[in-house]
Amino acid sequence: MLRNLLFGTAVSLVFLTSCGGGGGGSGDSTSTAASTAASTASKAASTASKSKSSSGSSTAALGMSHNAGQDCLSCHKTGGSGASKAIFTLAGTVYKTGGAAQTQATVKLFIHNTNTLSISLTTDSLGNFYTTKAVTGLFVAGGPFVDGVDIAIDGPAASDTTMSGLVTNGSCNACHGVSTGKITAN
User: Fold this and answer.
1) Beta bridge partners of 131
2) At what angle do helices 2-15 and 29-47 cross, to 10 degrees?
3) Element holding 34 (H helix, E strand)
4) Residue 8: its pLDDT value, please?
Protein backbone atom coordinates (compact mmCIF):
# COMPACT_ATOMS: atom_id res chain seq x y z
CA MET A 1 0.00 0.00 0.00
CA LEU A 2 2.83 2.39 0.85
CA ARG A 3 4.44 1.66 -2.52
CA ASN A 4 1.14 2.50 -4.26
CA LEU A 5 0.80 5.64 -2.18
CA LEU A 6 4.32 6.81 -3.06
CA PHE A 7 3.80 5.92 -6.73
CA GLY A 8 0.46 7.77 -6.74
CA THR A 9 2.13 10.81 -5.18
CA ALA A 10 4.89 10.77 -7.80
CA VAL A 11 2.41 10.32 -10.65
CA SER A 12 0.22 13.09 -9.35
CA LEU A 13 3.14 15.50 -9.39
CA VAL A 14 3.27 14.92 -13.13
CA PHE A 15 -0.48 15.36 -13.71
CA LEU A 16 -1.27 18.27 -11.43
CA THR A 17 0.35 21.64 -10.87
CA SER A 18 -0.24 24.32 -8.30
CA CYS A 19 -2.89 27.04 -8.49
CA GLY A 20 -3.10 30.30 -6.65
CA GLY A 21 0.54 31.22 -6.41
CA GLY A 22 2.62 28.05 -6.22
CA GLY A 23 4.90 28.29 -3.21
CA GLY A 24 2.76 30.82 -1.41
CA GLY A 25 4.76 33.70 -2.84
CA SER A 26 8.18 32.31 -1.90
CA GLY A 27 9.08 31.57 -5.50
CA ASP A 28 10.70 28.26 -4.48
CA SER A 29 8.42 25.67 -6.04
CA THR A 30 10.97 22.87 -5.52
CA SER A 31 10.88 23.02 -1.75
CA THR A 32 7.12 23.56 -1.78
CA ALA A 33 6.57 20.49 -3.96
CA ALA A 34 8.81 18.38 -1.72
CA SER A 35 7.09 19.51 1.48
CA THR A 36 3.67 19.07 -0.13
CA ALA A 37 4.51 15.53 -1.27
CA ALA A 38 5.69 14.62 2.24
CA SER A 39 2.66 16.28 3.81
CA THR A 40 0.32 14.54 1.38
CA ALA A 41 1.83 11.11 2.07
CA SER A 42 1.26 11.72 5.77
CA LYS A 43 -2.32 12.87 5.16
CA ALA A 44 -3.13 9.90 2.97
CA ALA A 45 -1.85 7.53 5.62
CA SER A 46 -3.81 9.28 8.36
CA THR A 47 -7.05 9.34 6.38
CA ALA A 48 -6.82 5.89 4.80
CA SER A 49 -8.69 4.29 7.67
CA LYS A 50 -11.36 7.01 7.95
CA SER A 51 -14.64 6.61 6.18
CA LYS A 52 -15.49 9.21 3.59
CA SER A 53 -17.43 12.09 5.05
CA SER A 54 -20.63 13.34 3.55
CA SER A 55 -20.24 15.71 0.67
CA GLY A 56 -19.81 19.38 1.35
CA SER A 57 -21.13 20.12 -2.11
CA SER A 58 -24.51 21.63 -2.73
CA THR A 59 -25.58 19.32 -5.55
CA ALA A 60 -28.90 18.32 -3.99
CA ALA A 61 -29.84 21.85 -3.02
CA LEU A 62 -28.93 23.39 -6.37
CA GLY A 63 -30.10 20.67 -8.74
CA MET A 64 -28.08 19.34 -11.66
CA SER A 65 -24.73 20.96 -12.33
CA HIS A 66 -23.67 21.98 -15.83
CA ASN A 67 -20.79 23.22 -17.99
CA ALA A 68 -18.24 20.58 -16.92
CA GLY A 69 -14.69 21.81 -17.40
CA GLN A 70 -15.57 25.51 -17.49
CA ASP A 71 -14.47 27.98 -14.81
CA CYS A 72 -17.44 27.75 -12.44
CA LEU A 73 -16.42 30.79 -10.42
CA SER A 74 -16.46 33.04 -13.48
CA CYS A 75 -20.30 32.96 -13.21
CA HIS A 76 -20.98 31.69 -9.68
CA LYS A 77 -19.52 34.76 -7.94
CA THR A 78 -20.88 38.02 -6.60
CA GLY A 79 -22.17 39.95 -9.61
CA GLY A 80 -21.78 36.95 -11.92
CA SER A 81 -24.51 35.52 -14.12
CA GLY A 82 -24.81 32.43 -11.89
CA ALA A 83 -25.00 34.36 -8.61
CA SER A 84 -28.79 34.05 -8.44
CA LYS A 85 -28.37 30.24 -8.24
CA ALA A 86 -25.33 30.11 -5.95
CA ILE A 87 -22.04 31.81 -5.13
CA PHE A 88 -19.34 29.15 -4.98
CA THR A 89 -16.22 29.30 -2.84
CA LEU A 90 -14.69 26.21 -4.49
CA ALA A 91 -15.56 24.41 -7.71
CA GLY A 92 -14.03 22.28 -10.45
CA THR A 93 -14.30 19.13 -12.56
CA VAL A 94 -12.58 15.75 -12.17
CA TYR A 95 -11.98 13.45 -15.14
CA LYS A 96 -10.90 9.87 -15.66
CA THR A 97 -7.55 9.46 -17.41
CA GLY A 98 -9.31 8.84 -20.75
CA GLY A 99 -11.20 12.13 -20.55
CA ALA A 100 -14.65 11.00 -19.38
CA ALA A 101 -16.22 12.55 -16.28
CA GLN A 102 -15.12 10.95 -13.00
CA THR A 103 -18.42 10.54 -11.19
CA GLN A 104 -17.07 8.77 -8.12
CA ALA A 105 -14.23 10.97 -6.86
CA THR A 106 -13.78 12.61 -3.49
CA VAL A 107 -11.90 15.91 -3.38
CA LYS A 108 -10.30 16.62 0.00
CA LEU A 109 -8.72 19.91 1.05
CA PHE A 110 -6.36 19.98 4.02
CA ILE A 111 -5.03 23.08 5.76
CA HIS A 112 -1.52 23.50 4.31
CA ASN A 113 1.11 21.25 5.92
CA THR A 114 -1.35 19.69 8.38
CA ASN A 115 -3.62 16.67 8.58
CA THR A 116 -6.58 18.96 9.29
CA LEU A 117 -9.36 18.29 6.79
CA SER A 118 -10.97 21.58 5.74
CA ILE A 119 -13.63 20.07 3.45
CA SER A 120 -14.44 16.90 1.53
CA LEU A 121 -16.53 17.06 -1.66
CA THR A 122 -17.92 14.33 -3.89
CA THR A 123 -18.19 14.70 -7.66
CA ASP A 124 -21.60 14.58 -9.30
CA SER A 125 -22.76 12.87 -12.52
CA LEU A 126 -20.78 15.35 -14.66
CA GLY A 127 -17.60 15.08 -12.58
CA ASN A 128 -18.23 18.50 -11.03
CA PHE A 129 -17.67 19.37 -7.38
CA TYR A 130 -18.60 22.66 -5.73
CA THR A 131 -19.59 24.27 -2.48
CA THR A 132 -21.03 27.53 -1.21
CA LYS A 133 -19.53 26.99 2.24
CA ALA A 134 -16.54 28.97 3.48
CA VAL A 135 -13.42 26.82 3.12
CA THR A 136 -10.72 27.42 5.68
CA GLY A 137 -7.44 28.08 3.91
CA LEU A 138 -8.84 29.54 0.68
CA PHE A 139 -8.76 33.23 -0.17
CA VAL A 140 -12.07 35.01 -0.59
CA ALA A 141 -12.11 38.38 -2.38
CA GLY A 142 -11.68 41.12 0.19
CA GLY A 143 -10.77 38.56 2.85
CA PRO A 144 -7.64 38.15 4.93
CA PHE A 145 -4.40 36.46 3.85
CA VAL A 146 -4.70 32.67 4.05
CA ASP A 147 -2.35 29.76 4.71
CA GLY A 148 -3.66 27.80 1.73
CA VAL A 149 -4.62 24.17 1.33
CA ASP A 150 -3.16 20.91 0.08
CA ILE A 151 -5.40 18.77 -2.11
CA ALA A 152 -5.92 15.01 -2.39
CA ILE A 153 -8.40 13.39 -4.76
CA ASP A 154 -9.60 9.83 -4.24
CA GLY A 155 -10.91 7.93 -7.24
CA PRO A 156 -13.13 4.85 -6.95
CA ALA A 157 -10.05 2.62 -7.15
CA ALA A 158 -8.99 4.16 -3.81
CA SER A 159 -6.00 5.77 -5.48
CA ASP A 160 -5.00 9.19 -4.22
CA THR A 161 -4.05 11.88 -6.67
CA THR A 162 -2.37 14.82 -4.99
CA MET A 163 -1.63 18.29 -6.18
CA SER A 164 1.86 19.68 -5.79
CA GLY A 165 2.15 23.19 -4.48
CA LEU A 166 0.07 25.40 -2.28
CA VAL A 167 -3.47 26.28 -3.37
CA THR A 168 -5.01 29.56 -2.20
CA ASN A 169 -8.10 29.97 -4.38
CA GLY A 170 -11.06 27.73 -5.19
CA SER A 171 -11.44 28.36 -8.90
CA CYS A 172 -9.95 25.03 -10.01
CA ASN A 173 -11.06 25.11 -13.66
CA ALA A 174 -9.58 28.58 -14.12
CA CYS A 175 -6.25 26.77 -14.57
CA HIS A 176 -7.02 23.07 -15.00
CA GLY A 177 -7.91 22.30 -18.58
CA VAL A 178 -6.79 25.77 -19.66
CA SER A 179 -3.14 26.44 -18.75
CA THR A 180 -2.48 23.14 -16.94
CA GLY A 181 -3.73 19.59 -17.27
CA LYS A 182 -7.21 18.51 -16.32
CA ILE A 183 -7.80 17.17 -12.81
CA THR A 184 -7.76 13.37 -13.08
CA ALA A 185 -8.49 10.47 -10.75
CA ASN A 186 -9.00 6.78 -11.47
Assistant:
1) 90
2) 140
3) helix 29-47
4) 39
Domain assignment of residue 173, given as a range: 2-48+55-184
Q: How many domains does the chain have?
A: 1
Q: Say how many residues make up the chain.
A: 186
At residue 34, the pLDDT reads 35
Q: 10-23 as b/e, with b when 16 or more CB fall inside 10 Å? A: ebbbebbbbbbbbb
For residue 102, how many other CB atoms are within 10 A of its CB? 23
Low-confidence ranges of the chain (pLDDT < 70): 1-63, 141-143
- pLDDT, residue 146, reads 80
Burial track 132-159 (b if 16+ CB lie within 10 A, e otherwise): beebebbbeeeeeebebbbbbbbbeeeb
